[in-house]
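This follows on from our talk about sequence and fold. Please put the record directly below this note.
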Amino acid sequence: MIEEIRPGLKRWAGPHPEFDPVEGDLDDSYLPVASVLFSGEEALVLIDPLVSDDLWPELDTEVKQSGKPVVVLTTIYFHERSRDAVARRYGARLGGGVAGVRAFGAERADEVALWLEEPRAVVFGDAVLGDQAGGLRLTPWASNAEGLERTRQALLPLLDLPVEIVLPAHGDPVLANGREALARAFEP
């Protein structure tokens, strides 16, 4: 089920057939992985879409109602999920610039955090997770302390933005006071 976070911003979550949170020292509460739908000025943007068979009709309706071209963005290369199926089904463009969306490098392979100017939301792949207690945490998947610090430093410019909402791919979203939650997560 696609849930409206704010007008023009929606999210859904479901199990990923290849993701095992226990392998990453996480508990089963992290099993659902999230995808985001953002209705920008010029495009309907799907971020890290993972579409189950039963969700396609609802997504078809979203695409039809928007009337905009579809663009698929990924936060990190292996979050391809249903990307190609979405591109085929809707004639979507894969990647590229989109008005109202700005990428921030996370210093983790090619990972980016995506700033959605309006509705003042940041979407994360694996660099930041929900902490399952209403806040956020830096990735548990850093290869070493230096890599984790590079990620933290790379993401600090997000604190200069008026972030209200944080939508991580793993863990619960932060739907209010997002900047403050990020600041706590980024504390050394």
Q: What stands out?
A: The mean pLDDT is 93. Residues 56-66 form the longest helix (11 residues). The helical segments are 56-66, 83-90, 145-155, 178-185. The radius of gyration is 16 Å.
